[in-house]
Amino acid sequence: MRFADIIGQHDLKQKLAENIDRGRISHAQLFTGEAGVGTLPLAIAYAQYLNCPNRKDGDSCGVCPSCRQISELAHPDLHFVFPVNKQGKKSGEVILSSDFMPLWREIMGDTGGYFTREEWFERLDLGKTLQGIISAKEADEIIRKLSFKSFESEYKVVIIWQAETMNEEAANKILKILEEPWEKTLFLLIAERPDRLLKTITSRTQEIAVPKLDIASLESIAGNIADPVQRRNMARLADGNLLEMRRLTRGEEESSRKESFDLFCRLMRLSYNDKHLELIEWADEVATLTREQQRSMLHHSARLLRESYMLHAGLGSISYLWGEEAAFCNKFAPFIGNQNVEFILGEIEQALRQINQNGNARIVFTHFALAVSKTINRLK
Fold this sequence. Notes:
Elements: H1 10-21, E1 28-32, H2 39-51, H3 65-71, E2 78-81, H4 101-111, H5 117-124, H6 136-146, E3 156-161, H7 168-179, E4 185-191, H8 199-202, E5 206-209, H9 215-219, H10 228-238, H11 242-250, H12 252-272, H13 276-287, H14 291-312, H15 323-332, H16 341-356, H17 361-376
Parallel strand pairs: 1-4, 1-5, 2-3, 3-4
Protein backbone atom coordinates (compact mmCIF):
# COMPACT_ATOMS: atom_id res chain seq x y z
CA MET A 1 0.00 0.00 0.00
CA ARG A 2 1.40 3.36 -1.07
CA PHE A 3 0.62 6.73 0.49
CA ALA A 4 -1.01 7.60 -2.84
CA ASP A 5 -3.56 4.83 -2.28
CA ILE A 6 -4.84 6.50 0.89
CA ILE A 7 -7.70 8.98 0.65
CA GLY A 8 -6.91 12.47 1.95
CA GLN A 9 -4.48 13.07 4.83
CA HIS A 10 -2.03 14.90 2.52
CA ASP A 11 -0.21 16.81 5.24
CA LEU A 12 0.18 13.79 7.51
CA LYS A 13 1.42 11.55 4.69
CA GLN A 14 3.99 14.18 3.77
CA LYS A 15 5.13 14.49 7.39
CA LEU A 16 5.48 10.71 7.82
CA ALA A 17 7.58 10.43 4.66
CA GLU A 18 9.76 13.39 5.65
CA ASN A 19 10.45 11.87 9.07
CA ILE A 20 11.76 8.70 7.44
CA ASP A 21 13.81 10.66 4.90
CA ARG A 22 15.46 12.59 7.73
CA GLY A 23 16.10 9.49 9.83
CA ARG A 24 13.57 10.48 12.51
CA ILE A 25 12.19 7.01 13.11
CA SER A 26 10.84 6.37 16.60
CA HIS A 27 10.97 2.67 17.48
CA ALA A 28 7.38 2.78 18.80
CA GLN A 29 4.62 4.88 17.26
CA LEU A 30 0.96 5.06 18.19
CA PHE A 31 -1.54 5.88 15.42
CA THR A 32 -4.74 7.15 17.02
CA GLY A 33 -8.10 7.89 15.44
CA GLU A 34 -11.35 6.34 14.24
CA ALA A 35 -11.27 3.38 11.87
CA GLY A 36 -12.74 5.53 9.10
CA VAL A 37 -9.89 8.06 9.01
CA GLY A 38 -7.22 5.66 7.76
CA THR A 39 -5.05 4.71 10.74
CA LEU A 40 -4.40 1.15 9.53
CA PRO A 41 -3.71 2.04 5.86
CA LEU A 42 -1.35 4.81 7.00
CA ALA A 43 0.60 2.42 9.23
CA ILE A 44 0.98 -0.09 6.38
CA ALA A 45 1.99 2.62 3.89
CA TYR A 46 4.52 3.91 6.42
CA ALA A 47 6.05 0.43 6.79
CA GLN A 48 6.17 0.05 3.01
CA TYR A 49 7.86 3.42 2.52
CA LEU A 50 10.37 2.64 5.27
CA ASN A 51 11.50 -0.59 3.61
CA CYS A 52 11.28 0.52 -0.03
CA PRO A 53 14.75 0.87 -1.63
CA ASN A 54 13.39 3.07 -4.43
CA ARG A 55 11.53 5.84 -2.63
CA LYS A 56 10.65 8.80 -4.79
CA ASP A 57 8.63 11.99 -4.36
CA GLY A 58 7.50 11.09 -0.85
CA ASP A 59 6.15 7.63 -1.67
CA SER A 60 7.26 4.03 -2.10
CA CYS A 61 7.77 2.74 -5.63
CA GLY A 62 5.09 0.07 -5.35
CA VAL A 63 6.86 -2.32 -7.74
CA CYS A 64 10.01 -3.56 -5.97
CA PRO A 65 9.87 -6.99 -4.28
CA SER A 66 9.53 -5.38 -0.83
CA CYS A 67 6.62 -3.17 -1.89
CA ARG A 68 4.83 -6.01 -3.64
CA GLN A 69 5.16 -8.31 -0.64
CA ILE A 70 3.94 -5.66 1.79
CA SER A 71 1.01 -4.73 -0.45
CA GLU A 72 0.06 -8.42 -0.43
CA LEU A 73 0.51 -8.53 3.37
CA ALA A 74 3.03 -11.33 2.88
CA HIS A 75 6.39 -9.75 3.72
CA PRO A 76 8.48 -11.93 6.07
CA ASP A 77 9.61 -8.88 8.06
CA LEU A 78 6.12 -7.41 8.48
CA HIS A 79 4.09 -8.92 11.32
CA PHE A 80 0.45 -8.22 12.19
CA VAL A 81 -1.18 -8.54 15.58
CA PHE A 82 -4.93 -8.06 16.02
CA PRO A 83 -7.71 -9.23 18.37
CA VAL A 84 -8.85 -12.80 17.73
CA ASN A 85 -11.06 -15.47 19.27
CA LYS A 86 -13.27 -18.27 18.03
CA GLN A 87 -16.45 -20.12 18.82
CA GLY A 88 -15.94 -23.42 20.60
CA LYS A 89 -12.47 -22.58 21.86
CA LYS A 90 -11.09 -25.43 23.96
CA SER A 91 -9.56 -24.91 27.38
CA GLY A 92 -5.87 -24.09 27.03
CA GLU A 93 -6.09 -23.71 23.24
CA VAL A 94 -3.69 -21.07 21.89
CA ILE A 95 -5.21 -18.75 19.29
CA LEU A 96 -2.88 -16.36 17.44
CA SER A 97 -3.28 -13.66 14.79
CA SER A 98 -1.14 -15.69 12.39
CA ASP A 99 -3.89 -18.35 12.35
CA PHE A 100 -6.25 -15.82 10.78
CA MET A 101 -3.99 -14.17 8.19
CA PRO A 102 -6.01 -15.47 5.20
CA LEU A 103 -9.13 -13.86 6.68
CA TRP A 104 -7.14 -10.69 7.47
CA ARG A 105 -5.93 -10.44 3.86
CA GLU A 106 -9.50 -10.97 2.70
CA ILE A 107 -10.99 -8.10 4.74
CA MET A 108 -8.06 -5.86 3.82
CA GLY A 109 -8.67 -6.58 0.15
CA ASP A 110 -12.41 -5.98 0.45
CA THR A 111 -12.15 -2.71 2.38
CA GLY A 112 -8.75 -1.21 1.60
CA GLY A 113 -7.99 -1.23 5.31
CA TYR A 114 -11.03 0.82 6.34
CA PHE A 115 -13.12 -1.36 8.63
CA THR A 116 -14.30 -1.40 12.23
CA ARG A 117 -13.51 -3.79 15.03
CA GLU A 118 -17.12 -5.00 14.89
CA GLU A 119 -16.80 -5.79 11.17
CA TRP A 120 -13.65 -7.81 11.91
CA PHE A 121 -15.41 -9.72 14.68
CA GLU A 122 -18.23 -10.50 12.23
CA ARG A 123 -15.64 -12.02 9.87
CA LEU A 124 -14.41 -14.10 12.79
CA ASP A 125 -18.03 -15.20 13.40
CA LEU A 126 -17.81 -14.45 17.11
CA GLY A 127 -21.54 -13.92 17.59
CA LYS A 128 -23.03 -11.44 20.06
CA THR A 129 -21.20 -12.53 23.20
CA LEU A 130 -17.59 -13.30 22.26
CA GLN A 131 -15.03 -10.52 21.93
CA GLY A 132 -11.63 -10.65 20.27
CA ILE A 133 -8.56 -10.01 22.43
CA ILE A 134 -4.81 -9.79 22.09
CA SER A 135 -3.47 -12.34 24.57
CA ALA A 136 -0.19 -12.84 26.36
CA LYS A 137 0.56 -15.78 24.01
CA GLU A 138 0.46 -13.26 21.17
CA ALA A 139 3.15 -11.22 22.91
CA ASP A 140 5.26 -14.37 23.33
CA GLU A 141 4.89 -15.02 19.59
CA ILE A 142 6.08 -11.49 18.80
CA ILE A 143 9.16 -12.03 20.94
CA ARG A 144 9.86 -15.32 19.14
CA LYS A 145 9.54 -13.76 15.68
CA LEU A 146 11.65 -10.72 16.51
CA SER A 147 14.44 -12.87 17.90
CA PHE A 148 15.34 -13.83 14.30
CA LYS A 149 17.34 -11.59 11.99
CA SER A 150 15.56 -9.67 9.27
CA PHE A 151 14.88 -11.83 6.24
CA GLU A 152 14.97 -9.21 3.50
CA SER A 153 14.45 -5.66 4.79
CA GLU A 154 16.43 -3.29 6.93
CA TYR A 155 13.61 -2.99 9.47
CA LYS A 156 11.37 -5.56 11.08
CA VAL A 157 7.91 -4.04 11.58
CA VAL A 158 5.14 -5.12 13.96
CA ILE A 159 1.70 -3.58 13.43
CA ILE A 160 -0.63 -4.01 16.40
CA TRP A 161 -4.18 -3.12 15.36
CA GLN A 162 -6.73 -2.36 18.09
CA ALA A 163 -3.91 -2.26 20.64
CA GLU A 164 -6.39 -1.37 23.39
CA THR A 165 -7.73 -4.95 23.23
CA MET A 166 -4.52 -6.32 24.76
CA ASN A 167 -5.20 -7.99 28.09
CA GLU A 168 -3.11 -6.88 31.05
CA GLU A 169 -0.54 -9.66 30.78
CA ALA A 170 -0.04 -9.04 27.06
CA ALA A 171 0.26 -5.30 27.61
CA ASN A 172 2.95 -5.78 30.24
CA LYS A 173 4.94 -8.07 27.96
CA ILE A 174 4.68 -5.59 25.08
CA LEU A 175 5.77 -2.84 27.48
CA LYS A 176 8.94 -4.76 28.30
CA ILE A 177 9.74 -5.04 24.58
CA LEU A 178 9.18 -1.31 24.09
CA GLU A 179 11.49 -0.57 27.01
CA GLU A 180 14.26 -2.77 25.60
CA PRO A 181 13.70 -2.78 21.82
CA TRP A 182 15.69 -4.76 19.31
CA GLU A 183 17.78 -2.72 16.89
CA LYS A 184 16.07 -1.89 13.59
CA THR A 185 12.71 -3.03 14.95
CA LEU A 186 9.65 -0.82 14.63
CA PHE A 187 6.35 -1.11 16.51
CA LEU A 188 3.30 0.61 15.02
CA LEU A 189 0.38 0.50 17.45
CA ILE A 190 -3.09 1.49 16.27
CA ALA A 191 -5.80 2.48 18.75
CA GLU A 192 -9.20 4.12 18.62
CA ARG A 193 -9.22 4.48 22.41
CA PRO A 194 -5.63 5.17 23.50
CA ASP A 195 -6.93 6.04 26.97
CA ARG A 196 -7.47 2.30 27.49
CA LEU A 197 -3.79 1.54 26.98
CA LEU A 198 -1.37 1.35 29.88
CA LYS A 199 0.00 4.80 30.61
CA THR A 200 3.47 3.30 30.61
CA ILE A 201 2.92 2.13 27.02
CA THR A 202 1.64 5.46 25.73
CA SER A 203 4.54 7.24 27.42
CA ARG A 204 6.99 5.13 25.43
CA THR A 205 5.39 5.74 22.05
CA GLN A 206 5.29 8.70 19.71
CA GLU A 207 1.64 9.50 19.05
CA ILE A 208 0.53 10.07 15.47
CA ALA A 209 -2.93 11.62 15.85
CA VAL A 210 -4.77 10.95 12.58
CA PRO A 211 -7.34 13.71 11.98
CA LYS A 212 -10.77 13.36 10.45
CA LEU A 213 -10.92 13.54 6.67
CA ASP A 214 -11.71 16.88 5.07
CA ILE A 215 -14.96 17.38 3.18
CA ALA A 216 -13.27 17.54 -0.24
CA SER A 217 -11.63 14.14 0.29
CA LEU A 218 -14.96 12.58 1.26
CA GLU A 219 -16.71 14.15 -1.73
CA SER A 220 -14.07 12.59 -4.00
CA ILE A 221 -15.35 9.06 -3.26
CA ALA A 222 -18.99 9.94 -4.01
CA GLY A 223 -18.78 9.78 -7.80
CA ASN A 224 -22.11 7.94 -7.95
CA ILE A 225 -23.90 10.99 -6.50
CA ALA A 226 -24.56 13.40 -9.37
CA ASP A 227 -25.97 16.30 -7.33
CA PRO A 228 -23.05 18.35 -5.91
CA VAL A 229 -25.21 19.75 -3.10
CA GLN A 230 -26.20 16.24 -2.02
CA ARG A 231 -22.53 15.16 -2.14
CA ARG A 232 -21.55 18.08 0.07
CA ASN A 233 -24.33 17.37 2.57
CA MET A 234 -23.35 13.71 2.72
CA ALA A 235 -19.72 14.64 3.31
CA ARG A 236 -20.76 16.90 6.17
CA LEU A 237 -22.94 14.19 7.69
CA ALA A 238 -20.08 11.69 7.46
CA ASP A 239 -18.15 13.91 9.90
CA GLY A 240 -14.69 13.10 8.55
CA ASN A 241 -15.27 9.34 8.51
CA LEU A 242 -14.81 7.39 5.27
CA LEU A 243 -16.88 4.45 6.50
CA GLU A 244 -19.85 6.72 7.20
CA MET A 245 -19.45 8.31 3.77
CA ARG A 246 -19.48 4.91 2.09
CA ARG A 247 -22.67 3.95 3.90
CA LEU A 248 -24.32 7.22 2.96
CA THR A 249 -23.45 6.96 -0.73
CA ARG A 250 -24.71 3.37 -0.85
CA GLY A 251 -27.96 4.40 0.79
CA GLU A 252 -27.35 2.06 3.71
CA GLU A 253 -27.34 4.86 6.22
CA GLU A 254 -30.73 6.34 5.32
CA SER A 255 -32.90 3.73 7.06
CA SER A 256 -30.52 3.68 10.03
CA ARG A 257 -30.67 7.49 10.30
CA LYS A 258 -34.47 7.43 10.14
CA GLU A 259 -34.73 4.76 12.85
CA SER A 260 -32.20 6.59 15.06
CA PHE A 261 -33.96 9.91 14.50
CA ASP A 262 -37.33 8.47 15.52
CA LEU A 263 -35.84 6.96 18.68
CA PHE A 264 -34.11 10.24 19.51
CA CYS A 265 -37.34 12.23 19.07
CA ARG A 266 -39.29 9.84 21.27
CA LEU A 267 -36.62 9.91 23.96
CA MET A 268 -36.57 13.70 24.10
CA ARG A 269 -40.36 14.06 24.09
CA LEU A 270 -40.77 11.48 26.83
CA SER A 271 -37.94 13.09 28.79
CA TYR A 272 -39.51 16.53 28.52
CA ASN A 273 -42.83 15.19 29.78
CA ASP A 274 -41.30 13.08 32.60
CA LYS A 275 -42.92 9.90 31.30
CA HIS A 276 -40.81 7.51 33.33
CA LEU A 277 -42.77 4.32 32.60
CA GLU A 278 -42.71 5.07 28.88
CA LEU A 279 -38.98 5.83 29.11
CA ILE A 280 -38.40 2.36 30.55
CA GLU A 281 -40.42 0.90 27.67
CA TRP A 282 -38.26 2.94 25.28
CA ALA A 283 -35.14 1.46 26.90
CA ASP A 284 -36.55 -2.06 26.58
CA GLU A 285 -37.18 -1.48 22.88
CA VAL A 286 -33.65 -0.18 22.25
CA ALA A 287 -32.24 -3.14 24.17
CA THR A 288 -33.70 -5.50 21.54
CA LEU A 289 -31.70 -3.85 18.73
CA THR A 290 -28.37 -5.22 17.56
CA ARG A 291 -25.20 -3.77 19.07
CA GLU A 292 -24.47 -2.00 15.79
CA GLN A 293 -27.96 -0.43 15.74
CA GLN A 294 -27.55 0.68 19.35
CA ARG A 295 -24.20 2.30 18.57
CA SER A 296 -25.67 3.97 15.50
CA MET A 297 -28.55 5.39 17.54
CA LEU A 298 -26.16 6.80 20.14
CA HIS A 299 -23.86 8.34 17.50
CA HIS A 300 -26.82 9.96 15.72
CA SER A 301 -28.17 11.22 19.04
CA ALA A 302 -24.84 12.89 19.81
CA ARG A 303 -24.85 14.56 16.38
CA LEU A 304 -28.42 15.85 16.78
CA LEU A 305 -27.63 17.17 20.25
CA ARG A 306 -24.62 19.08 18.95
CA GLU A 307 -26.67 20.50 16.09
CA SER A 308 -29.44 21.53 18.50
CA TYR A 309 -26.91 23.24 20.73
CA MET A 310 -25.55 25.16 17.75
CA LEU A 311 -29.08 26.32 16.95
CA HIS A 312 -29.53 27.32 20.59
CA ALA A 313 -26.30 29.34 20.35
CA GLY A 314 -27.46 31.15 17.21
CA LEU A 315 -25.13 29.26 14.84
CA GLY A 316 -27.83 27.83 12.59
CA SER A 317 -26.07 29.17 9.48
CA ILE A 318 -23.45 26.42 9.77
CA SER A 319 -25.90 23.67 10.69
CA TYR A 320 -25.92 20.44 8.65
CA LEU A 321 -29.62 19.75 9.25
CA TRP A 322 -32.44 19.66 6.76
CA GLY A 323 -35.94 18.24 6.44
CA GLU A 324 -37.58 16.69 9.49
CA GLU A 325 -34.32 16.77 11.45
CA ALA A 326 -34.13 20.55 11.05
CA ALA A 327 -37.81 20.96 11.98
CA PHE A 328 -37.48 18.94 15.18
CA CYS A 329 -34.13 20.38 16.31
CA ASN A 330 -35.32 23.95 15.84
CA LYS A 331 -38.14 23.24 18.30
CA PHE A 332 -35.90 21.24 20.60
CA ALA A 333 -32.97 23.71 20.65
CA PRO A 334 -34.30 25.91 23.54
CA PHE A 335 -33.96 22.94 25.88
CA ILE A 336 -30.29 22.26 25.10
CA GLY A 337 -27.80 24.69 26.55
CA ASN A 338 -24.63 25.04 28.60
CA GLN A 339 -26.42 23.62 31.64
CA ASN A 340 -27.01 20.18 30.16
CA VAL A 341 -25.37 19.52 26.77
CA GLU A 342 -22.06 18.29 28.19
CA PHE A 343 -23.82 16.07 30.70
CA ILE A 344 -26.01 14.41 28.06
CA LEU A 345 -23.07 13.92 25.70
CA GLY A 346 -21.20 12.37 28.61
CA GLU A 347 -24.09 9.97 29.20
CA ILE A 348 -23.98 9.00 25.51
CA GLU A 349 -20.23 8.33 25.72
CA GLN A 350 -20.76 6.23 28.83
CA ALA A 351 -23.53 4.22 27.17
CA LEU A 352 -21.29 3.63 24.14
CA ARG A 353 -18.46 2.39 26.35
CA GLN A 354 -20.77 0.03 28.23
CA ILE A 355 -22.30 -1.35 25.02
CA ASN A 356 -18.82 -1.87 23.52
CA GLN A 357 -17.92 -3.80 26.68
CA ASN A 358 -20.99 -6.04 26.29
CA GLY A 359 -22.87 -4.43 29.17
CA ASN A 360 -26.48 -5.42 29.82
CA ALA A 361 -28.32 -3.32 27.24
CA ARG A 362 -31.54 -3.04 29.22
CA ILE A 363 -29.72 -1.69 32.29
CA VAL A 364 -27.53 0.61 30.16
CA PHE A 365 -30.42 2.23 28.28
CA THR A 366 -32.74 2.45 31.29
CA HIS A 367 -30.09 4.42 33.17
CA PHE A 368 -29.40 6.48 30.05
CA ALA A 369 -33.06 7.38 29.44
CA LEU A 370 -33.75 8.36 33.05
CA ALA A 371 -30.54 10.42 33.26
CA VAL A 372 -31.43 12.28 30.05
CA SER A 373 -34.95 12.96 31.32
CA LYS A 374 -33.60 14.47 34.52
CA THR A 375 -31.22 16.85 32.77
CA ILE A 376 -33.58 17.89 29.94
CA ASN A 377 -35.91 19.31 32.57
CA ARG A 378 -33.23 21.66 33.87
CA LEU A 379 -34.07 24.08 31.06
CA LYS A 380 -37.88 23.76 31.18
